[in-house]
Amino acid sequence: MYGTGILKALAVTFKNALRPPFTVQYPDEKVAISLRFRGYNFAWYREKCTVCCTCAKACPVGIIYIVGRLQPNNAYYAERFEIDTGRCLFCGLCVESCPFEAIYMGREFEQAKYARREEFIDWAKKDGDPRVPSSWFRPCEEAGVETHYLQPEQRKVNL
Amino acid sequence: MPRVWDNFVYNWLAGFLQDWVAFLIMGIVVMAIILNFLALLVMVLQYMDRRLIARFQVRFGPNRVGPSGLLQPIADTIKLLTKEDLRPRLADPLVFTLAPLVVFLGGTLAFAVIPFNRSGFLADLNVGILYIFAITSLGAVGIFMAGWSSNNKYSLFGAMRAVAQLVAYEVPVVVSILGVVLITESLSLVDIVEKRDIPLILLQPLGFLIYLAAATAEVGRPPFDLLEAESELIAGYHTEYNGMRWALLQLGEYVATFAVAAVVTTLFLGGWKGPGPAVLGYVWFMLKALFVYLLILWVRASLPRVRIDQLMGFAWKFLLPLALLNVFITAAEALMWPDFPWLLVPVNIAIALGLVVLWSSLFQLRAYRKVEA
Question: Please, what's the b/e burial string for A82-98 (b: 16 or more CB within 10 A of its CB; e: otherwise)?
Fold first, then answer.
């Protein structure tokens, strides 16, 4: 019988009209980002990094620049650690490749800048800045599980 | 002497002027009022349209310009007014310029006879309904002018569809109204409202449904917007229009839709009648008309666009037979019970429901034969 579909459609739209709008009004409101979001603004930890450059070798577009210096205690110190995020694919291979969990994806998505050079993140100059690391590829961090290669005070990442 | 405007301004003017001068002055003033009212109303309707459609689709709609987006129509109007006036080189200049005006007039002239209140009308024609159907069909001429003069295949397709649709749907529209005319024994809109105490939708539920569906199709509102189907014809007949000419076409469409709502209010919902003092008649009329507009909007938000064969099948195989049956049934009732007692209300509603259910189970579109490749 024709016509029942019409009534069904009217009922659907009527029900929808009573629901609150689904829209998130972006600049005013922001959605809660998942902890495992693979986003902008990598978090890099100087104290964990040994300047092995595995991340720079793993990067398919070659946008990680590292300059290391040998210290008297036989450990390397990263003089430069820069990521040109303007060309980043967000593939996460640098995070996967890092043997010391020194680099994390970020949980931000606002990447718009006024100039291309501002897309360079120079984490060596921002040692004290707060980091917003993503727990992608690091489920232990999210759960607070102890891992053998982290000092206890480093373990709780500010997720 | 025609019965017009027995308000105090007219009486005061008629005190020291000749009757026809007072009539003329009042007419011009009221025409100006109605025209400006319609132009402002379209802004409100468009805002309402966008906000409510958005709510039906679980989103906000325009809410940035002014408090809850209330200034959005004004911003749109300013933008449209200041746009460059483009005309295709190969378009017919005269017809191209004239077409938006004709489309706009088609909807606007209908408001000359629509009574907003007991004495709130421009003219009380004794053939008011006939006049409305004659004048709203003018819109199709304007649409065809727009499509033809644009010299664009999409425009022409849209215009052709518009004319086909209008010709098909004019028939059920007119036939569905005959029931009302039979009950009220008049073609004048004022008489129709005043004749019965109850809204005629109770006595004519079937006529109401048929008229609403057919008139929605006649003004080309979704789901019957084949004439400007944006997925098939870029924008149909107004593909080549922009700026203020496009706005006039849009204005004409909205005014025509509101004219449908106003006619439904007048014929079926008791026009200005409602509790409260006589001045509230304007408010009651507007409330009822906006309610009908909301119904059209709701259908628009719910249903997908129909195919052309569904469109034609709906007009000729569904609406027209039911409208004819409605006329016969109403005529029989008018012969047997000329004062239409209350008992007829449930009977008529039952008849309407039964006929709609019966006819929709019998309804069939032509089955397409599969062609062997």
Answer: bbbbeebeeebbbbeeb
- Reference A13, options B214, B63, B300; nearest CA is B300
Q: Give Cβ neighbours of residue B94 (< 8 Å, ≥ 6 apart).
A: B149
On whether residue A16 sits in a domain, the answer given is no
User: Which pLDDT value is given to residue A145?
Assistant: 58
Determine the pLDDT at residue A159.
43
- Shortest CB distance from B58 goes to which of A6, A16, A25? A16
Tell me, what amino acid is at A37? Answer: F
3-class DSSP assignment, residue B296: helix
For the segment B294-351, what is each residue's pLDDT rounded down to a tens digit? 999 999 888 888 888 888 888 888 889 999 999 998 888 888 887 777 788 888 888 8
Residue A38 lies in a domain: yes
- CA B15, B19, B20: angle at the middle one, nearest 5? 145
User: Is position A93 within any domain?
Assistant: yes
Q: What φ, ψ does residue A23 adopt, rounded to 5°?
A: -60, 135
A43 φ/ψ angles, rounded to the nearest 5 degrees = -105, 125
Structural domain spans, chain B = 1-82, 85-372
Chains A & B: contacts with CB separation below 8 Å:
41
Q: Which residue from B54, B303, B361 is facing A1, i.e. has the nearest CB? A: B361
* Owning domain of residue A127: 26-154
CA dist B169 and B147 (Å) reads 20
- Report how many domains make up chain A: 1
* pLDDT tens digits for range B56-88: 988 888 888 888 888 988 898 898 889 888 888
CATH of the domain at A134: 3.30.70.3270
> In 3D, which of A118, A116, A89, A120 has the Cα closest to residue A105?
A89
Residues of B in contact with A12 (CB under 8 A): 302
Does this model's pTM top 0.90?
no
Q: In percent, how much of chain B has pLDDT > 90?
A: 7
Nearest C-alpha of chain B: how many angstroms from A10?
Answer: 5
